[in-house]
């Protein structure tokens, strides 16, 4: 009896030690930095290299925006619906967009991603990392340069693609809300709320190819800040085209120098997504937590997360938010196209000064 009690006490103690060591065990890498897993040590030199030589010393500029867009265009390349017809449906976040650059960059929705693929390739070549892991890693590190961003999760261990993703897996700005929601549901069972959360990415974004006459035209007035302005400004009445009219996938925007995608406009007003969209206005905490969770899910599409190594502690802490939610100068609550029927639009101050005109994101 006494032996039995002692034995169960010992096994309890062992279980406690295992659980405890899983929480506290740290590895010190050769450069002195600490991480939870020795395999993550290889990421520190890559981090330093991309911060210095891809992201211009830690900026939240064009290469960061393009790297973030690339995480999506690689990961969303998966379709169980296509696979069910007996055809390869894509491998998700498997690097196929860069490995099969010649094929996938010819897909209409991938217009322009060849630029960042070509910029990233030398980094992949000089480090020991899979293309699939690099694309997601570079996106997460890039976002950590943007004030107000969440600290995104990073996993390694993805296997590189051996086949390209099929065409039409990346949504287009002229797709209907029905088709966009169906595409995300097919790719990874994303809910409409998760789709809205993923679109927080458009707070650090600009378009080069929607209206090619005005490359670098941002989607909100603060493209270097991970703030809620995108969710505010997409709800304002559109009054102008920043460049030429008649571009596919573009609708009128409320601010000079700002471009509005038709898909963002419609998602902000559709009854399935409007209240979720509005809920991000002036809610930095929700912006951070919801984007972090949805991004994590996106970056492991096509993989079982239990087969991957969590290296999230390698990611630097992003700078604190650097803006207060506001209406751009010259605009106010009167310009809101209220779409959510349940909750009123939050009360916000208007920026002082003459009507806002946004500068393009400079190429670097
Ligand atoms: C409904 C889904 C989406 C559509 C239709 C869409 C469409 C677009 C379009 C048309 C552009 C402009 C490309 C150009 O002309 O240069 C763009 C830019 C961008 N997108 Fe999306 N997008 C979607 C979802 C996402 C998601 C889920 C992410 C990331 C998680 C993302 C990240 C970005 C970023 C960061 C840019 C800016 C790239 C730059 O500044 O160079 N997008 N998107």
UniProtKB/TrEMBL annotation:
Which cysteines form disulfides?
Answer: 29-41, 40-311, 60-146, 275-340
Q: Is Thylakoid there in the keyword field?
A: no
What does the entry list as the binding residues for Ca(2+) 2?
203, 220, 222, 227
**Top enzyme class of this protein?**
oxidoreductase
Q: List residues binding Ca(2+) 1.
A: 74, 92, 94, 96
Q: Which gene encodes it?
A: mnp1
The Plant heme peroxidase family profile domain extends over 68-344
Under what name is this protein listed?
Peroxidase
The positions flagged as active site in the entry are 73 (proton acceptor)
Q: Which PANTHER family has this protein been placed in?
A: CATALASE-PEROXIDASE, THYLAKOID LUMENAL 29 KDA PROTEIN, CHLOROPLASTIC-RELATED
Organism name? Trametes polyzona
Q: Where is the signal peptide?
A: 1-21
Q: What is its EC number?
A: 1.11.1.-
Keyword list (alphabetical) reads:
Calcium, Disulfide bond, Glycoprotein, Heme, Iron, Lignin degradation, Metal-binding, Oxidoreductase, Peroxidase, Signal
What is the required cofactor set for this protein? heme b; Ca(2+)
CDD domains, sorted: ligninase
């Amino acid at each position: 009896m006494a032996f039995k009690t002692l034995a169960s006490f010992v096994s309890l103690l062992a279980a406690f030690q295992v659980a405890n060591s899983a929480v506290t065990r740290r590895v010190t890498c050769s450069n002195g930095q600490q991480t939870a897993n020795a395999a993550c040590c290889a990421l520190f030199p890559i981090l330093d290299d991309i911060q210095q030589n891809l992201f211009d010393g830690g900026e939240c500029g064009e290469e960061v925006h393009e790297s973030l867009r690339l995480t999506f265009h690689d990961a969303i390349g998966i379709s169980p619906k296509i696979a069910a017809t007996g055809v390869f449906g894509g491998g998700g976040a498997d690097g196929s967009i860069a490995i099969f650059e010649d094929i996938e960059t010819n897909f209409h929705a991938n217009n322009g991603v060849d630029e960042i693929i070509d910029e990233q390739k030398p980094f992949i070549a000089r480090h020991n990392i899979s293309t699939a892991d690099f694309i997601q890693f570079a996106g997460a590190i890039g976002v950590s340069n943007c004030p107000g961003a969440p600290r995104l999760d990073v996993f390694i261990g993805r296997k590189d693609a051996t086949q390209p993703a099929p065409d039409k897996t990346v949504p287009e700005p002229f797709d209907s809300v029905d088709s966009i929601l169906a595409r995300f549901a097919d790719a990874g069972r994303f809910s409409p709320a998760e789709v809205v959360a993923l679109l927080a990415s458009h707070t650090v974004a600009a378009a080069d190819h929607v209206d090619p006459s005005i490359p670098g035209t941002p989607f909100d007035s603060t493209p270097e800040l991970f703030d809620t302005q995108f969710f505010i400004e997409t709800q304002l009445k559109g009054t102008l085209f920043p460049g030429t009219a008649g571009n596919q996938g573009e609708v009128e925007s409320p601010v000079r120098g700002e471009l509005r995608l038709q898909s963002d406009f419609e998602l902000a007003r559709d009854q399935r997504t409007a209240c979720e969209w509005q809920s991000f206005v002036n809610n930095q905490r929700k912006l951070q937590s919801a984007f972090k969770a949805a991004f994590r899910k996106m970056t492991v599409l096509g993989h079982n997360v239990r087969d991957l190594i969590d290296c999230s502690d390698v990611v630097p802490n992003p700078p604190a938010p650097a803006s207060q939610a506001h209406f751009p100068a010259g605009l106010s609550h009167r310009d809101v196209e209220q779409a959510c029927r349940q909750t009123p639009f939050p009360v916000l101050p208007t920026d002082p000064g003459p009507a806002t005109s946004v500068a393009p994101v400079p190429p670097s």
